[in-house]
Every structure is written in C-alpha cells, then in structure tokens.
Amino acid sequence: MGGTCLATSRELAFSMGTILAEHKGASVVLLDMAAQSGWTDWFVIATAGSVTHLRGLARHMEDFAATQDFRARGSISIADEEEWVLLDFGDIVVHLMVERARQFYELEKLWFQAPATPIEAPLPSLQP
Order of strands, edge to edge, in the sheet holding 116-118? Predict the structure, then answer.
C-alpha cells in the first residue's frame, strides 16, 4: 500500500468490511491471512445479491481506498455475467461474489486455518 495514510492494514480491512456490510453485502467476513500467506495480510469477503450489486460494492471499495490514498492493483472491469470480483490492494484482497460463486469456492473452508471475523452492519442510530 502506498500513500500517507497512517491506518494499519487491519484497520483498513475492518473499515472495508464495515462499508460492505453497510451497503448490503451479505455474510461479510475478514480472514487474517498474515500467518497463511506471504503475499497479503487480509481477505475481505462479501456476497452480492446481483451483478449490479457486485459492481456497486466494488465501486464503494475503490472510492474508500481513494480516500485512504491507495489503489487496487490492475484495472477493474466487471462483465455482465461476472460472479466473482477480486480487488487486490496489496495487504488487503477483497473478494466480492454472488451467492452461487461464494458457495462453490468456499474460501473460508479453503483457508480454514486463517482466523475469521464476521462483520455486521452497525445498527442505525435512533437519535432524531
């Protein structure tokens, strides 16, 4: 990751997970990959309800990353039939999948030794 942001990859991964949950990403989970791989520290995984939703979630991730002064590696283009989008931010890799792909690839089972943390959307404030 580049830029001047002082946030740690852990803080950024948790922020990304929260943003995905806030934008209706389902079953958002963070996998701590630091001990499992030498190429990334975190997987952020979320399920999208449709390809249109997948595009929206990817855009939210790119917008957030820009506010933190880092960018995904490579260009992001999502075809109409796309079921899985991978956004590589170096220390953080975001996996956005439709339900069918999420069930088929089962990343949490593949990387079962990585500690997993589910992320829930914060409850709306009840203040007027």
Answer: 84-88, 92-98, 42-48, 26-32, 116-118
Give a three-class secondary structure readout of the chain. CCCCCCCCHHHHHHHHHHHHHHCCCEEEEEEECCCCCCCCCEEEEEEECCHHHHHHHHHHHHHHHHHCCCCCCCCCCCCCCCCEEEEECCCEEEEEEEHHHHHHHCHHHHCCCCCEEECCCCCCCCCC
**What pLDDT does residue 71 have?**
77
The predicted-structure confidence for 59-109, as pLDDT tens digits, reads as follows: 999 999 999 888 777 666 666 678 999 999 999 999 999 999 999 999 999
pTM of this structure: 0.87
Domains in the chain with CATH codes: 9-117 (3.30.460.10)
